[in-house]
DEAD/DEAH box helicase
Amino acid sequence: MLPEEKARVKIDRQLTNAGWDIVSRDEYVPRSASAVKEALMQGNTESDYLLFVDDKAIAVVEAKREENHLGGDVQIQAEDYACNPQDWYGVWFPNQIPLVYLANGNKIYFKNMLQPDSEYIELNEMHSPKKMLKLIGQVSEYGALPRLDKRGLRDCQYRAEMKFEESIKNGDKKSLAILATGSGKTYLACLATYRLLNYTNAKRVLFLADRNNLAKQAKTEFCTFNRTENQEEMSSLYTIERLRKDSDIKADIVISTIQKLFAVLTGKQLTDDDSEDAEDEKNAVKEEAEESKTIQLGDSLFLPSDYFQLIIVDECHRSIYGKWRAVLDYFSDAHVLGLTATPTPEAYAFFNYNKVEEYSYEDSVVDGVNVPSRIYRIKTEKTEHGGVIDEGTSVVETSRRTGNETEYEAHHRIDYDSSALDRSVVNPDQIREVLTAYKKAIYEDLYPEREKKWEYIPKTLIFAKDDYHATQIVEIAEEVFAEEFENGKVPEHFVQKITYTAEDSNGLIRDLRTEKDFRIAVTVTLVATGTDVKPLEVVLFMKDVRSDTLYTQMKGRGCRVIDDDKLKEVTPNAVTKECYYIVDAVGVTESDKVIPQPVIGPGKGKKVLPLDKLLERLAHNEVSDENLWLLRDYCSTINRRYENNVLFGKHLDYFNNTFGFSPKTIAFRIQEAYDKELLPQYTSPSNDNTERMDLIIDLIGNIPARRKLLEMQRGYFVTTEDDPDKLIYAGFSKETAQSFIDNFEQYLNDNKDSIEALRIIYNSEDVVITHSMLVELRDSLLSESRQYSPYQIWRNYKVIDEFGNVDELDMKANFNALTNLIQIVRFAYHKNQKLTALIKGYTQRFNLYCGQAQRTLSNDQIEIMRQIAEFVINDGAITAMELNEIDTDLWRRGITSFTAPVFNDEIQKMSRFLLRAA
């Protein structure tokens, strides 16, 4: 690197650390705190960096090599730039850029040109946008928002925050962030809260939680959030209160349910008591009863409409758009950010279809944020077809309201269908059959590799139809699992109910996360949404769910990733959580459920500038009549070229579909504005040109769209588009297993030339497959999908096997054997007609190897080779050198017994013999 380049690297870092987004001239977008490199100045000169806040030039940075002492000649050069800005740049002061910085990578000097007689002073660090505005005595609504450092943020969080800030700069009042369970919605809320409180005029933020226990979780996360300027916790910078008494509403950050906010708004007194569980229970009962009476605020309200500047609505798919909408609508001056994993049509409509991020569960699985699901289906006669209560059968009738029981004999035959089961008809034997089947599956089908310890079965959440059903499940679960314990009784906390009638539901949820003795939780809806239980590995449905949104939330309780060590703390016989199981006892996975999707809705100037230069000037607010007309003509021409173009029309389709508008849309807006005389007169880029900029902001504020437009203007030779793969979930049903195998075999075919082990097997090469080859194959498969472990692949082949060609995998002998991959691939490539583990018949093949003619092995040599064979049959062939790294003592014995050249050759001969097709 040249000395100038080395200095620039350091100066770039100083600017980015101060919150400046460094961009080239053609990448500048309006309403950003940007440092434009090589910015064009008067006289066709270039400033090393020109800094903009609110689309107005605020500072010049003159950069030199480290050896330059930044003397008088550099000062004159920088100040000359500051006094001669381009007339198409917006400025804070007429013909003046107020701040000048000199930098060489090691030193930074600064002068405020508003104080012309002042001297340059040395700085320890570059000033931030916020600091520069303060130095020139100016304020900005959003201009002090610094560049957001992506480090430590998930991609979805970074994109959501950037698009949210872009959205509020564009004047949008409502924004919707769709983020999969576990992807950090509350952390995003903390980030948005801090940046608006610290860098904008926002004074107070409201976080609306769905339930009180979720509000408690949120307060903890807000208080400990430390992604701040000096890594201080947010609780040391702002007052953070959960709304429990009237005075809490005065905090900088208020966390509340919408019910409590309504109470304060309408003057109802709050008391700081311990009745929150009862409050949640009451609200849940109302929701289940589908009470839809709309809240009316009345005229006497106790908070001004501008009390909050930002309102964040967690779990925003809930009922705020109907019953409680008036509360949100009242705070009309606030920006509203909605957070959900499962948006509803009402949510899309409420937020004006303004999605700032859409990060699906499938995306989160690919990224390793969540684990995939696998479906285990349990069917009984009653759940599938209903049942019969014969005449004369003894029946106990229980009152749901009082619990009073009445016993009588049925006077006639009663037929009931499966939908009535556990609602109007409770059949304890059906519950017993389901739970017995689940118990049997735990260590036989779901986790056969785990040591059978009944006190540490996987953490399980069972969804019941109602509170009485939940009580029945708890009692029968205790009965079913009791026989697995020595004293014929389950441990005290083994299975517990978490419903609104349970005492201390929050404490029970906490125990489910952390306590080893709490293995099965039974709930109705209390643990259905928002509750984080990372060690949960099984979600068992004993109630059907029709709501797409609720179903997605419920099954998502099990998808959270957890470190192996943390999992073992609560489930000691576990190894890792590579998936979670949906155990379906009612057909909930088989009914059609569709996640709702958003509705996508809503005289000529002279060609003076080429399109790229025109876009640059428009981005700097030079939205003159001439420039707008010119953009109109460019957009109209480009659109016309691609309409009905058989060869390249797909680019216009791509543009329209990707960016949500067409070039013709921009042209139409401009023309319509002039036809209807809607635009105020243009004076200069330093003025407020919001109405003019709004016509074109979809294009000017979108760098990819600008680049695509420029690309389309230039035309094409040929183009291609990728067809991305889909993530497929493994399951126990034949349909999902077949889909899994189809995708797996497609991967094998696509990579038969690029992965060594696949190439050898596919081409039937006479080459021994080594341990390192199998490691490469295993890692490649797992990088493609976390489900492509040898065990999962084998299991899916077994599910679809109709002719007995797939052996049962011996979970004790070779569950983790890498050589299973050899047999799987041979079977997939149709090299073997049966899928059989190499370890099967291994002893016989080893004895045949030892008994081969033309040489005799001593007993010591046989024992040495037997120990090596145990490794080879499980993990692939190795060399003597590799053996030395694995077991030095065994290697030394082999060298002594065989001599080095003979020993290595003998290992290869045996490996070839053992790993041949079985």
User: Anything to note?
Assistant: The longest helix spans residues 428-446. The longest strand covers residues 46-53. The two ends are 59 Å apart (CA to CA). Residues 733-829 form one domain.
